[in-house]
Amino acid sequence: MRTFRADQILHSLYRDWIDDWDMATTLPKDFRERLKEEIPFTSAKLLDVARSDDGTEKLLVGFADGEAVETVLIPATGRFTQCISTQVGCAMGCAFCASGSQGVVRSLSADEIVAQYMLGRKRGEITNIVVMGMGEPFANYDETMRALKLINAGKGPNLGARHITLSTCGVVPGFAKLAAEGIQFELSVSLHAPNDALRSELMPVNRRWPIDELLHACAEYTKATKRIITFEYTVIRGVNDSRACAEELAAQVRRVPMAKVNLIPLSPVSHRQDFKTPDEKTMLMFLDVLMKKGVQTMLRRSRGKDKDAACGQLRIRRMKERRSI
Ligand code: SAH
Predict the structure, then answer these.
(1) Which of 123, 153, 155, 234 is the most buried (most CB within 10 A)?
(2) How many helices (H) and strands (E) does the chain have?
(3) How far is the CA of 118 from the centre of ligand 1 (A)?
(4) Is 245 a residue of the active site?
(5) 241 lines ligand 1 (CB under 6 A)
């Protein structure tokens, strides 16, 4: 294909945001007909939008086989972040996570991942992407990477690599692979517990790759890439919120050069009523211990609380509704 045709196609897709080849009016009609036949648009469809009072929008995106995932649009001052999914469900089975409560159905293809971005992009100029929706990106590494590279491509949407954050629960082989890509994506690691006994209880993935192995991979990653790693720590009342946990966490995190911590209060999930959100005082105590030990720490707030805030909840509700029809 001649390059100018390729450029025209990319322009139609990622500047005009077309979702039908007939909208690509810069292309000759017979050429559009050929495209329709040879490269049909993905059948991704917007099934539902849940809007929160804080402006967060949760979109339910359906695919050809009837499966669906969530993607969330989060406005903030000077930012418009989209949280995208990489799998339908999740195999990792973290105790506090709605996405993992029913196992994995399948991984998404790169075009199904990009389709979420395209649908989000129609609702506003996305400035940041976080791969923190349903699924484990390192368990669907190749398709996730294809999608993110496309979104990052200069002739595509051209979203800067530093504006794209991958989040993993600690699938260790993914770290070296990502480091070898030589792309400056941001990396977050879901830690949630400072020792193996507690982490294995909350996150079954820890039995396969315990904390020592995980932190070693993190340290290698920061050394190889000179990039920061952000540890995510979801605080659950009475489970991982003690002063002793905070002190142990500080010591673990300091084993990784260039690491910081995000503290997030748990979003309640329906399948674990016993897991409760910590109070503000506990969050501040936890923050204080980490800061005093020299760990760079941020307090995060969960958004979209009034609309099935925790990951995967909208999809679960919809699937239940469908089943009961
Ligand atoms: N599988 C990846 C990305 C998806 S989860 C990962 O584990 O990192 C994105 C983030 O949301 C993770 O840090 C996850 O632990 C967190 N999370 C999941 N359920 C949560 C809940 N109920 N409350 C707060 N954070 C939660």
Answers:
(1) 234
(2) 11, 12
(3) 23
(4) no
(5) no
Residue that is written with structure tokens 């491509």 in the block: 153
Angle between helices 110-121 and 141-152 (to 10 degrees): 40
Ligand 1 centroid–CA 97 distance in Å is 6
Q: What digits encode the pLDDT tens for the residues 192-214?
A: 999 999 999 999 999 999 999 99
Instruction: Report the residue among 167, 218, 269 best suited for mutation to probe ligand 1: largest number of ligand atoms under 8 A from its CB.
Output: 167
Domain positions in the chain: 42-324
Tell me which residue has its CA closest to atom 9 in ligand 1.
Answer: 132
H-helix or E-strand spanning residue 57: strand 57-62
Q: How far is CA 173 from the centre of its chain?
A: 18
Matching residue, tokens 């989000």: 120
Does the predicted model carry a pTM greater than 0.90? yes
User: How many A from CA of 302 to the centre of ligand 1?
Assistant: 11
Query: What does the mean pLDDT of the chain come to?
Result: 92
Q: Which fold has domain 42-324?
A: TIM Barrel (3.20.20)
- CA of 3 relative to ligand 1 center, distance in Å: 42
Concatenated DSSP letters of 245-307: HHHHHHHHHTTSTTEEEEEEEPPP-TT-TT--PPPHHHHHHHHHHHHHTT-EEEE-----TTT
**What average pLDDT does the segment 281-295 reach?**
97
**For residue 221, what are the CA distances in angstroms to 29, 37, 190?**
49, 44, 15
Assess whether the C-beta atom of 267 lies below 6 angstroms from ligand 1. yes
Which residues are paired to 83 by β-bridges?
72, 130
Out of 57, 70, 143, 232, the active site residue is: 70
In the residue annotation, 97 being an active-site residue is answered as: no
Provide the token pair at 317.
Answer: 């509700």
Do the beta carbons of residue 87 and residue 106 sit within 8 Å? yes
For 116-174, give the secondary structure using H, E and C.
Answer: HHHHHHCCCCCCEEEECCCCCHHHHHHHHHHHHHHHHCCCCCCCCHHHEEEEECCCCHH
